[in-house]
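Researcher: Here's a chain I'd like modeled. Treat it as a single chain, no partners, no ligands.
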Amino acid sequence: MDVADVAEYLQKPESWVYGNWRRREIPFKKIGNQLRCRPADLERWIDRQAA
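Model: Modeled as a single isolated chain. Structure tokens:
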């Protein structure tokens, strides 16, 4: 998933997603000049937020 996909999935603006990535909260990997997130990693991150 890229930033736009994550933003749509979480129903948040892309700026919010970038802000959380910068604080190392959302589990993105930088591939070249793009950020990518595995759906399973995002689900684990969501589960940890609810705890």
